[in-house]
Amino acid sequence: MVHEMEEDHVEDMEVEVLSSMWPEDIDEAGKKFNVEKPGVHDNMLDDLAFIEEPSIVDFKRLVELTSYSEKGSSQLAYLVKNWEYKQENAVRLLREELENLSKQQRQVELKKLEIYEQHRFEEESYGGDKRPVSVLDEGYEIFQDVPRKRNDVIVENKQLEIDAEYDTVTYWKQQALYLGKLLEASVQREQILLEKLEESIEKLEKQSSPVEELSQILKRADNFLHFVLQNAPVVIGHQDKELRYRFIYNHFPSLREEDIIGKTDVEIFKGGGVKESQDFKREVLERGLPAKREITFETELFGAKTFLIYVEPVFSKDGEKIGVNYMGMEITDQVKKREKMVKLREEIAVQKAKETELNKTIHITEETMRAKQMLATMSHEIRSPLSGVVSMAEILSTTKLDKDQKQLLSVMLSSGDLVLQLINDILDLSKVESGVMRLEATKFRPREVIKHVLQTAAASLKKMLILEGHVADDVPLEVIGDVLRIRQILTNLISNAIKFTHQGKVQINLYVIADPYPECQLEPKINDDSAKNGHEDNESCSHENVVWIRCDVKDTGIGIPETALPNLFKKYMQAGADTARKYGGTGLGLAICKQLVELMGGHLTVSSKENYGSTFTFVLPHKVSLACDSSDDTDEFDDMADNESSDDDLSCGFFQFQPHSLVSVFTSNGSGIPHKVNAKEISLIDDDHSCIDTSSEPESSSKCGSENENTNCIKKEKDNCDDLPLASCSPSDEHSSRNGQEVVPNSETKPKILLVEDHVVNVMVARRMMRQLNQDMDVVNNGAEAVRAVHRCNYDLIFMDVCMPVMDGLEATRVIRSFEKTGNWDEARKAGVELEDSPSYDQILNGPRKRIPIIAMTANAMSESAEECFENGMDSFVTKPVTLQGLKQCLEQYVL
Amino acid sequence: MDAVSQLQRQFVEHATSLYREGYLDDQFTQLLKLQDESNPDFVVEVVSLFFEDSEKLLNNLATALQQESIDYKQVDAHVHQFKGSSSSIGAQRVKNVCVVFRNYCDEKNLDGCLVCLEQAKNEYLLVRNKLEALFNLEQQILQAGGSVPMMA
């Protein structure tokens, strides 16, 4: 059948139209029946042109297949059944036709017989007396039986009959003639019908061959499949038991029929995947179950391609396996896409993992920061009550006590001080570590710093030690840096050196070295806005150079064992377990020094020999303004030199302090001038306005607002200056050194303090506390007033409440800082603060100003966060309610 | 002499109970320390100032909380002041109420604020009575020719 179909195929394609499934001349009934068949497909196929099919078929095998395989036979059975049904129908119809015809024939025969009888009778009668005698009325009746179609003729005949006279010979003759004609026609019709019948039967025989019917059906099915599959990237095939191709359909054939049919995969292709696919097919064949698999081929013929292969076993009617059907679809692109998706998913997963990791890190960092903040807060919280204890003890020590009590108290005080120091250190450290610590860039004079540090150390020196300072000539007169922090480092190192030295001397050596990092221009990490602004304002020819200054702090003390060196700068580490017991200390000092030095872009090292002493060395980059050494400032220097008549003080490179001596010995000219209290000077100046002339009148800045009473206080202080660190012996000197470009007043004055606080009770308490500390202060009630006060007068320290009406402490601080940077009050005016007219002030000091330490007073560390205070330019903070100790600490740290 | 030591003991007991019951904290001790011969009435002065201020603030608060539309910012400012002054003289329990009060202010919780105002008033009156009693004792001791014991 298939065979025939294939044979007919080419022809059919040319015609392009498929013939109906039914013989064309079959009658209406048959056609109607046809409609019930899958006519839709029919039409679709009719309209389509088919390209030469690429299928290659082993026909014989296919025939065998269809006749022997189960599937084939069931399909055949169906087709045959269908055909039989249709044939039956056709036969039935033909039979009906036949029956009709034979009925007609019978009628015609009957009529003929009648006519013959009539005729005979007529003949007889005619033959008898030659005259038609009888009339056959029945003749009509016979005609009546004839089908209606012929009625017309009969009517005509009737009319004819009327022409002749009834029952005459002529009449009968005519009648006989007419009937003869009728008979003839009838016979003729019969003949035609017979012929037709024969023809029909003949045609039926010819056309009703089931082979043709089935082949047509198959052709249609085939075409349908082609229609569906013509562009599909699909290969369909059948392979026999030995996996030799018996049929293959491939829309894009690359091999000819003879290359494939009868061969196995392995015989046809070479390369990766071929063997796999063959094994897979074999497996399916053996198992007898259909299966799917994805196989990637890497053949010379196709290149790399991935196919999804479906293989199903084919069984014979007996259930024997006779081969496999297989269907392959190329899915290379899909696989690529899928792999890309997988890769993307992997990447996303990796990304997510990274993100999680990052989040974790961030979380940990945040936790660490929080922990540090917590530590700071806690330390802060501990400090307040502790300072209460210490300050009470201090006050207690001023009361009448016997010797034993005094001794106990001194131990209590020193322990308390140690704990306080520890907490302060922790606070400092956490400030540095949490990045809150900010460096300031101000001009300062290294020689003065050294001198004052030594002076301070000498003041509290209780050992027979000599303190010396050497400053090399090439160290610039003025440099820019964070003098507060540098002092902190120096003080720390010096006190460390003194602590561990029992005899001999402690030295500070200062000299310039070459850039230790000449390759990379290491800029000091100093917030140098103020300095820059200042230079631009002051010196047109400002050339900033970085000079590296090395500072050695050398002692002749107990030294540090080599094994202890690596841990020396670590937090809470001391050289040995004994050290802490013997010498005390927090173990944080050096760690803070190192961190500060590094924060400023330098480094701190140590060298030591046990029993001979240690040398701590730090190297710091400092900016130097070349211009500032010469022209502009000379006037100021001259002024100062005139006033103090100690111009050697500036360039002098050597200081020496003997134990219990406040007198610095200037070996350069030997004209050491003792800095004694000049009570007259102080009492003379109690006018607020004197401070306006800060720049030209060196002494005034730190003295304005002093009251006569102060002099007494200072004197009182001097009496017990050895007992109380608070009563530092030369507050003015220390104070002046902070001012950098300002001159050194040689007299003792009180620092000028401003309290900004809106609440009467708080003011009263704070004022009283200050009095207790022998300090006076001005009080204003809000930030705006504070700004005005700073505008009017020069303060050395400001205590600033954060929460205030009109203008809060944060804003006031910002305004003041802005003034210090720019030298103008634009920011204040912008903030709506009305300032009194004091043009002289503005004009004279149209440049950066010294930075006034501003201490925030916060009600609680949480809502008014310390960070916020620092961000707005505050230097430190005390928690409210303020305590005597809190105030005292601030004074010590910032002004005394 | 007996009467004086009696008074002195009473004074110490009373003062100790003030600390123990949390009416006062260390800050009050600080105030005591700030008082010396040159400023014999410092504590009384400060505390009187506190009383004055507190009464004004409590009135302000009562008025502010009676308004139709309450300006919580204003209320908070008053409470903040109250907290500041009470902590400055060491009136711990008043201060603690103020802390809670401010939280209710943040939440704009009127009921909470009213309760707190009532509490603050009570605590203030309590601490005022206690302090006045303390000062009375002090006066009596001084009048009897004794010296006020140090509270440290």
SSE blueprint and pairings:
The complex is a heterodimer of chains A (896) and B (152).
Chain A: H1 2-15, H2 28-35, H3 39-47, E1 56-57, H4 59-68, H5 70-129, H6 138-145, H7 151-163, H8 169-207, H9 210-229, E2 234-240, E3 245-250, H10 257-260, H11 265-268, E4 271-272, H12 274-287, E5 291-299, E6 303-315, E7 321-330, H13 332-397, H14 403-433, E8 442-444, H15 446-459, E9 465-471, E10 479-481, H16 483-499, E11 504-513, H17 529-538, E12 544-555, H18 577-583, H19 589-599, E13 603-609, E14 613-625, H20 626-629, H21 631-644, H22 648-651, E15 654-657, H23 679-684, H24 708-719, H25 731-737, E16 753-756, H26 760-772, E17 777-780, H27 783-792, E18 797-801, H28 809-822, H29 826-830, H30 839-844, E19 854-858, H31 866-871, E20 876-879, H32 884-894
Parallel strand pairs in A: 9-11, 16-17, 16-18, 18-19, 19-20
Antiparallel strand pairs in A: 1-3, 2-3, 2-7, 4-5, 5-6, 6-7, 8-10, 9-15, 11-12, 12-14, 13-14
Helix pairs in contact in A: 1-9, 4-5, 5-8, 5-9, 13-14, 14-19, 15-16, 16-19, 27-28
Chain B: H1 2-20, H2 26-34, H3 42-66, H4 72-89, H5 92-107, H6 110-143
Number of helices of chain B: 6
Radius of gyration of chain B: 17 Å
Q: What would you report as the Rg of chain A, rounded to the nearest angstrom?
A: 63 Å
Give the neighbour order of strands across the main sheet of chain A.
1-3-2-7-6-5-4
Low-pLDDT windows of residues of chain A = 1-53, 125-161, 520-543, 628-648, 661-747, 839-844
Terminal Cα span of chain A = 121 Å
Q: Helix- and strand-based class of chain A?
A: alpha+beta
Q: Average pLDDT across residues of chain B?
A: 86
Shape of chain B: elongated
Q: Please count the beta strands of chain A (DSSP E, at least 2 residues each).
A: 20
Modified residues (Phosphohistidine) (chain B): 80
InterPro entries (chain B): AHP1-5/YPD1 (IPR045871), HPT_dom_sf (IPR036641), Sig_transdc_His_kin_Hpt_dom (IPR008207)
Subcellular location (chain B): Cytoplasm, Cytosol; Nucleus
GO molecular function (chain B): histidine phosphotransfer kinase activity; protein histidine kinase binding
